[in-house]
Amino acid sequence: MATRKSAKRRPRYLLKFIFLVFLALCAALGVYCVHLDKVVRSQFEGKRFALPARVYARPLEIFAGKTLTLAELRRELDLLGFAKVTQVRVPGEYVSTPVYVVFQTRAFEFWDGPQGSQRVRVTFDGNQVAEVREEISGRELDLFRLEPISIGGIYTHNNEDRQLVRYNQVPRHFIDALIAIEDKRFYYHHGVDPKALLRAAVSTATGRGVQGGSTLTQQLVKNFFLTPERTLKRKANEMLMALLLELHYEKNDILETYLNEVYFGQDGSRGIHGVGLASQFYFGRSVEQLKPHHSALLVAMLKGPTYYNPRRNPERALERRNLVLAETGTQGYLTPKEFEVAIAQPLDVTRNAGMGMSNYPAFLDLVFRQLRRDYQETDLRSEGLRIFSTLDPLVQQTAEKDPGGTTHPIGAAL
């Protein structure tokens, strides 16, 4: 009898033990989730990015009577990455005739306050400025200050560079292409997409190739919070943190951070991060100026920024871009007419990056050494300081072309 009672008690003790172990595991998971939650909120709500200090040349001041040729103004606009067009429609474009230049500036934050976008007509009389007017109102301007050229930066120790953009600055067609290719159900899942995970698992198991199942939120978590190691622990953390991120923050907040974090390739030792810098680096345009074929190319590069680099592998990049356009159109984000126009466009990338390591390394080194007297080096590499100098790129180019002239940068930090 005693033996039978003992045998009956064993399953109960075993079930009780299993239940207690289960409770302990749940408690441990709960404590760990609380820890992860603190990490997610503290980093996401705090300082999200280390921004390098950016060094600018002098801003070109234009006024009636100034000694300046039309060719010199055009050269300045080209250095700023303005696009020459037949009709100015958006910031960063200019029209040139033999007598005048019309351009629309980009909004810029000077040391003494912000300056909004303006459309300006500068008329010339020989080697002098004859007149400066606001194009739309016709109002004459006594003095106009053109945004300065960026001549380099003091980068973070891992050489990440980016230009922060707000969500509402990014064209809708870029967002649409990104969603269509990277995460079709972004607005419907809660950080992890079970359907995408199942689809990826089936594709891998049936030998149809490796297919990604990570959402945009998971991609952001992987790049923003975690190391690139490929382990089950890292993947579990990625999924938990993605769920927690979506629990606390709006979709557009998550998407804005993704847009500023995502990697678009290398410029020498400098990493190009974020759509804001990528649009300047590849197209010489501000992010607001991107057109659907530009957006499709940048989204195409996310699969492999080096493999699909449009300057090194143009045919490969074009094929991938067209695939992105086709998928974006199939999902209804582009009309048939928009698709036809976009797919007929060339890659449209600038011949040279134009924003690589500075053409004035000696001058930048001088500026850096001067600034270190008054600032911590960590602040110079992470606080996004804007440093305005007196370097005149037009004078410098002339000096470098003169065989008997100086080749040393002319200027100093302000």
Q: In summary, what is this structure?
A:
This protein has 414 residues and is α+β, with helices and mostly antiparallel strands.
Structure description:
This protein starts with a helix and ends in a 13-residue tail after the last helix. The protein has a five-stranded mixed sheet with strand order 3-4-5-8-9, with helices on one face. Strands 11-1-15 form a three-stranded mixed sheet. The protein has helices at 2-45, 70-79, 172-182, 194-205, 216-224, 232-248, 251-261, 274-283, 292-301, 314-330, 336-343, 361-371, 377-382, 393-401, and strands at residues 53-56, 61-62, 83-84, 93-96, 100-104, 108-110, 113-115, 119-125, 128-134, 144-145, 150-154, 160-161, 263-267, 270-273, 386-388. The chain is elongated. It is built from 14 helices and 15 strands. The chain is of the alpha+beta class and 414 residues long. β6 and β7 form a beta hairpin. Among the domains are: 57-150, Penicillin-binding protein 1b domain (Penicillin-binding protein 1b fold, 2-Layer Sandwich), CATH 3.30.2060.10; 174-343, Penicillin binding protein transpeptidase fold, CATH 1.10.3810. α1 (2-45) crosses α6, α5 (216-224) crosses α6 and α9 crosses α10. The longest helix has 44 residues, at 2-45.
